[in-house]
Amino acid sequence: MFASVLPLAAGEVHGSASFALPFAEPPGVSTWFVSQWYGNTVTAYRNRAVLYRAGQGLHFGVDFAARCGTIVRAIGDGIVVAVDGPYGAAPHNVVIAHPNGYRSLYGHLLERSPLQVGQRVQQGDPVGKVGDPASPNCDRAPHLHLEIRDASMRRAFNPVSLIEADWRRLTLGLTLPGQRFVLSYESPMQWRTPWDQPDVTFGGILLNEWQDTWPR
Amino acid sequence: MSGRTPGHGERVLWRYFLPILAATLFGVLVSCRFQGIGPAAHPTALYSATALPSSTPASLDGMVSTPTPTSRRELLTRTVPEEALGDWTASPTVQPTAEDHSKIVAAECCGVFAWAGVDWLLVYDVEPRPGGWLVNVVSGERRWIAPRFGVPGADVIAVPDPISGRTTLFRWDGSSGGTIENGGAIVYPDATGRWIAWSVAEEYAVPSSAVSRISRVMVLDRASGEMHFVGRLRVSALAWSGVGSELLVVGETPEDSQAGLWVATPPSSGLHLVKEGRFFVNLRPVPGTRSVLVTQVLSGEPKDDGVWLIDLDRGALQHLPIETNYRVAQKSVWVLQWGEEHDRLIGYSLPDLEVCASAELGDQVLSDVWEIAPDGRWVAYWRTSDQRVVVEPLPGCHAVSQG
Questions:
Q1: Which of B86, B254, B282, B309 is most enclosed, with most CB atoms within 10 A?
Q2: CATH of the domain spanning B99-186, picked from 3.40.50, 2.30.30, 3.40.30, 2.40.10
Q3: A187-211: per-residue pLDDT in tens?
Q4: A150 to chain B, minimum CA–CA distance in Å?
Q5: What is the CB neighbour count within 10 angstroms for residue A172?
Q6: Transmembrane region positions (chain B) (predicted)?
Q7: ipTM of the modeled complex
């Protein structure tokens, strides 16, 4: 199941992962839900040239909408390798290296994480709190941006393929633009579901530089 | 919870919009142009499109009714002769029965579709010819409309062309009913056939993809050909009420971040705040009525979160105890329950909201892409197993609730 998302750094990752969701609470309208999938989402397409340019125009993580202050938890055992490192997802982020070679990045945290680089964490341990990249008042776009990368941090993979979860239920069926995928008229069946999305190489060419799409 | 604030929203918007209106009206009139004819005197469809429709094509397994015996593949590929398009009339409808488990494949791929009217589904399909197709789910008739998908309205299908920067209004026979030069924006025709709305983004970059762009909301009066500036908001959703003529906008003012569900009644300008608050999603007008369903999330007050039924006539708000994965028909609300092998739909009657029907689907719905027909007799969904768009009949919810 996970073979297709192996990072390039051979020998540093194993063929499977058993990551968990980054929240302890169940999903719901007052707790959290998936607001944007990884990949060729409508939202990513509309922001491909600026916000997601570095990620080849795709959304290179999964966004979980949640109230600011919601506790974010480690998706697997590992060692903290960065706190507020140079990986975007402002205002604060944390990166954890896992024994299977993957690294998880927790972005848009409300405040600097109390974790220290080199500190060991276990799956479910608190990593930080959900913040809002668009407003200090937490009233615009509060959410966690979760990425899974390889050890080089140059490639990102679809967390949907690496986290054990009943993903279908996690959108709450809200039909947000981030929960939909753009249809390119040139290739209308490409990258249209949460389970069918390409890996991202940071700095690579735009993968979705299309002019003729639905929607636009 | 934020209650209704009659008139306040309008005052706020006028305060900000009047100067903007003067500055933008000239530019809008220059940058947007409409060429075409007015709405049909007798619209052929009864219902308007829902907000931000997604779409999907499907295929046809065992039609409910077909004019002539034909194979499934023939149904998939059959096209209507050109000469037959001009004198098209509505097909006789067939009431699905509880014993009828027919599944109609409306498209071979892609998961892009919207209900266009009674028994008619607009889908995007690649076979036998890529483009937007009108499919009659009773007769199996298929009509190729345009090379792209669009938004169905009362008497036209509005097909945006991002390459030419123009949106073409196609009649149901495939002929052109006019064009709008608006940059190729997706437009939303209303149920009366007179009004068409769209938004034009004013800014390019946003601080987060979860933040909507500041946009000008525009309305075209097809009767006069005039365009009207409605307002300037960070628009996250646009839709017409189920009876048309009233434009619903989920958004917030750029200047003071007053957010909520707004209503405008063109040609008079100005937006009224119907329900104030942030994070309104899944806006779904009730077909043929002046009510709308919308969901509030993450408000900070759990009692305010969830599904709301708003009566635009009375301004009444009703909190509905249903799950958020809903679609709306004229007299019923349907909620999708995710299953291990087969998903299930639960029907609730409107407005009393009693459980009135349950239907197990033949498969799982892919990526939450499903739509209920405006009359509640069909569900179209993107099928997980083969990624086709299929249509299945539903039990009569309204009949149960009336009994």
A1: B282
A2: 2.40.10
A3: 999 999 999 999 999 999 999 999 9
A4: 24
A5: 24
A6: 12-30
A7: 0.92
